[in-house]
Amino acid sequence: MAPIATPTPPSPPATPSIVNGKDFGNYKEQAAGAKSFNKRLEEEGNEKHAKATHINYLPIWDTKTKYPPLKPFVHTEHGLNADKAFPDILTPTVKRDDLTPTIGTVLEGVQLSSLSNDGKDQLALFAAQRKVLIFRDQDFASLPIDEALKFGGYFGRHHIHPTSGAPKGYPEVHVVHRGADDRSGEILLETRTSTVAWHSDVSYERQPPGTTFLYILDTPTTGGDTLFVNMVEAYKRLSPGFRERLHGLKAVHSGIEQAGSAQMRESHVRREPVSHVHPLIRTHPATGEKALYVNPQFTRSIVGYKKDESDALLKFLFDHIAYGADFQVRARWAKNSVVVWDNRVAGHSATLDWDTGHRRHLARITPQAEEPYETPFEGI
After folding, report:
1. Helix, strand or coil, per DSSP, at residue 177
2. Which of 187, 205, 225, 346 has the largest count of CB atoms under 10 Å?
3. What are the catalytic residues?
4. What is the dihedral of CA 235, 238, 241, 247, to 10 degrees?
5. How do residues 194-225 score in pLDDT, each as one tens digit?
6. Quick check: 36 pLDDT over 60?
7. Over the range 326-337, which residues count as b (16 or more CB within 10 Å of their CB) and which as e?
8. C-alpha distances in Å from residue 319, one per residue of 296, 313, 314, 351, 370
9. 291: left (phi over 0), alpha (psi -120 to 50) or beta
10. pLDDT tens for residues 55-74?
11. Under a CB-based contact definition with an 8 Å cutoff, are residues 63 and 367 in contact?
């Protein structure tokens, strides 16, 4: 596999102070956090709710451990040498359903945990091409956690989230958890009209994630779907002149607001928050496709623009992403489902749309990839 070297910027970014207060700008807090976690209800259940199906995946917030800043590493892009016929993914017995022309494919009849390295390479490329893959009837949730991590670690260095809860002993697993009868999500709707929060995971890191895995543990009977948007198609929909103008621009991505929100929810900040500068248009190393790389959760400003100019351009781009229903897809969760997507070319958002008090519990494995880079504008 051809490794992609990570260039070193002229100087490291400054780390601002953690934001205090209730106003975090565009950032929307979708996570429940330690403050609303009911350990007894999750582990034992009650007359209304069963206990969590996967207690080994329940989150803890380790307040004693602090992690140092992440160091650069050389990422190996496994999709580069993959067999483009996908013989290990699209076998004759696999049922394939493309949910839309440009994004989202449901696959039944292939077991991810049984893939060879060649199959994993194909998975990386296929996810980059289709942006989002939904695999049914998988055994990920029942695997020992270290085996799930070993599988995910093939695709890159594991990211340890700076603020989220994690299963005891496995900080590399990002737990998405809203417990039974947890109504903390209603707080968001006290000040917002929608819970949708488009983002690319931890885009504030110097080397954000690539091929990413999210698998269901417990889900409401209805609701709690995950929305995805094709950022390559979002780029293509812009006029050639507008695309050309975006090339060369860079934006600041910040994790400061997320850390401040975590502190308010009594969740531990285990690594100091950072901000990094990335190109507005990034290129995927395996497909060569160009993608819009901004999101309202973490993108704060355009380098070199005055605030009014930056805010106006970012608002247009954020609206373009949000309104693009014809290049979005909705992933509906079902028991034993695993969603695989490429964070470099797809944005996403959870939906906090159920009011039944049912538990929503997922685990994410988040391998990091290369530092975002841009290739020259190529015209129409």
Report:
1. strand
2. 346
3. 199, 201, 348, 364
4. -20
5. 889 999 999 999 999 999 999 999 999 999 99
6. yes
7. ebbbebebeeeb
8. 9, 10, 8, 18, 27
9. beta
10. 999 999 988 899 999 999 99
11. no
